Amino acid sequence: MHTLFISDLHLHESRPQVTRAFFHFLYSHAIHAEALYILGDFFDAWIGDDDDSELLQDVASGLHKLSELGVAIYFMHGNRDFLLGKTYASKAGMSLIDDGTVIDLYGTPTLLMHGDTLCTGDTEYQQFRTMVRSPQWQQQILAQPLAARRALAAQLRAKSQSMNSLKADDIMDISPAEVIAQMEAARVTRLIHGHTHRPARHQLVVAGNPAERIVLGDWHDSGWCIKADQNSIDLIEWKI
Ligand code: MN
After folding, report:
1. I want to staple 218 with a disulfide (CB 3.0 to 4.6 A). Which of 8, 48, 179, 182 is the partner?
2. In this structure, are residues 33 and 71 in contact, taking their beta carbons and an 8 Å threshold?
3. Which tens digits make up the pLDDT trace of 1-44?
4. Residue 194 CA, ligand 1 centroid: distance in Å
5. CA atoms of 1 and 70, how far apart (whole Å)
6. pLDDT tens digits for 161-203?
7. Distance from the CA of 210 to the center of ligand 1, in angstroms?
């Protein structure tokens, strides 16, 4: 038996090749797993569970089929799909999990995060995050008509791209001190996250013990996953 992790597919109508690659991954690989963890930014944007676009319905029914076949599916919010709610999650047969969940991965306590909270050098983003994660802001947005939310999502997407193009590379990456603080607080020696689009395995020392941070890649020209079983854990890339 094995467990799979993916993140940052940024599924969107404008990138049908990534959607195709995801369905291929689902039916040729994920179908053999005991669990699939989706660690955020699975969708490029989320405007509410009442969004009736075809892509979202297809993805929900694909995931739901997988869950009926016995694969446990877990979903963690990213900074783009943080409004995904219980209605869609249940339609897709997946359980929502909190950012910062610790799981027992075949005997190794493993901290799972999306990764944006580790980028503490980007104070502008962290302020924005605090605002959009507040229940008041979310209620206000979700009360607007679908068309208004679509327009807002496009606006936020453009804003995020222009903000990020002005920032230095290291501001956009995780803060090493924050990684160690989070891993110490969670009492783990392994962390899996995405968000930075910098897939890699990093060795570090946490509370005096050898530790590892494994970063998932975003799906663009390649697909990425982490595959873990009783004996090993691998970061895997393939061309799409
Ligand atoms: Mn992200």
Report:
1. 8
2. yes
3. 999 999 999 999 999 999 999 999 999 999 999 999 999 999 99
4. 7
5. 12
6. 777 777 777 767 999 999 999 999 999 999 999 999 999 999 9
7. 27
* 11 DSSP assignment: B
Q: What are the tens digits of pLDDT across the range 195-205?
A: 999 999 999 99
Global pTM reads: 0.95
Gap from CA of 44 to ligand 1 centroid (Å): 9
CATH number of residue 196's parent domain = 3.60.21.10
With 80 as the cut, is the pLDDT of residue 48 above it? yes
CA of 119 to the centre of ligand 1 (A): 10
What is the extent of the structural domain holding 52? 3-239
Give residue 31 CA to ligand 1 midpoint distance, Å. 25
Separation of CA 22 and ligand 1 centre (Å): 18
- % of the chain at pLDDT higher than 70: 100
Candidates 9, 3, 219, 208; CA nearest to 103 is 3
What separation in angstroms does the CA of 40 have from each of 5, 11, 69, 105, 208? 10, 11, 23, 19, 30
User: 90 C-alpha vs ligand 1 centroid, how far in Å?
Assistant: 23
